[in-house]
Design brief:
The structure holds two protein chains of two kinds.
Chain A (H helix, E strand, L loop, with lengths): L10
Chain B lengths: L2 H24 L7 H14 L10 H23 L16 H14 L6 H15 L2 H9 L5 H27 L6 H13 L1 H12 L9
The chains are: A little secondary structure, B mainly alpha.
Chain lengths: 10, 215
């Protein structure tokens, strides 16, 4: 899902 | 991780180091908006709620701790440090930043990806960060001349999100990940708010003149 797409960003 | 995001994170880190240098080297926080520092502390606390629950990488965790720790240390310094707090321009730093907090929170309640505590606080932190620089820009306009370190601090702080926008474009084309449109729009607004500052900053650098923001 798009939710965790950018979870690795600050 | 891509070069744009790494450049963005390092630029963000540099802005914090420049601010710490200014405060510790000059023992003064003149020209710095305490309200912007408080907003940034809130941004990091709201955004990194998953600090202890979701482990992404050592780099990610360390940077989150640095951002939270440094923003709280700067707020503490400007409020409590005997010498530093004397140079705070209280009478110039009058932006009603509570409205920015309230507005961002209400917007996050309405516009978010998922109605969960973590996602709402994440959206809140993204909206708040987009406008967090406003008290600082208002203070710069009111305080006339801007000392070099303060100007560099604002410059790097504005540049970091511009690198993030390049990172999102890069990820869109390489990983087919549209990512989060909330970040896209807020990031564009955030960077646009620095536009006039960047213009005057560049002109002062080109003419080798002191940075002056028109009142």
């Amino acid at each position: 899902s798009s939710i965790n797409d950018l979870k690795d960003e600050l | 991780m891509n070069i744009f995001r790494l450049a963005g994170d390092l630029t963000h880190l540099i802005s914090i180091l420049v601010l710490l240098l200014k405060i510790y080297a000059t023992k003064s926080c003149s020209g710095i908006s305490l309200k912007t520092q408080e907003l940034y502390a809130l941004v990091f606390l709201a955004r990194y709620l998953d600090l202890f629950t979701d482990f992404v990488s050592v780099y990610n965790t360390v940077m989150k701790l640095v951002f939270i720790g440094s923003s709280l240390a700067i707020v503490w310094c400007m409020r409590m440090h005997r010498i530093v707090k004397r140079s705070y321009n209280r009478e110039l730093d009058t932006f009603r930043h509570y409205f920015l907090v309230a507005g961002s929170f209400v917007l996050a309640l309405v516009v978010h990806e998922k109605f969960t505590l973590q996602e709402i606080f994440w959206a809140f932190s993204i909206y708040l960060e987009a406008v967090a620089i406003l008290p600082q820009l208002v203070l710069l306009q009111r305080s006339g001349n801007v000392d070099n370190l303060t100007g560099q601090y604002v410059f790097f702080l504005g540049a970091y999100r511009a690198f993030y926008i390049l990172n999102w474009i890069y990820r869109y084309f390489t990983e087919q990940r549209f990512g989060r449109w909330i970040s896209w729009i807020s990031g564009l607004v955030q960077t646009a708010l620095y536009a006039d500052f960047f213009y005057y900053y560049f002109m002062s650098w080109k003419n080798n003149a002191k940075l002056q923001l028109p009142a």
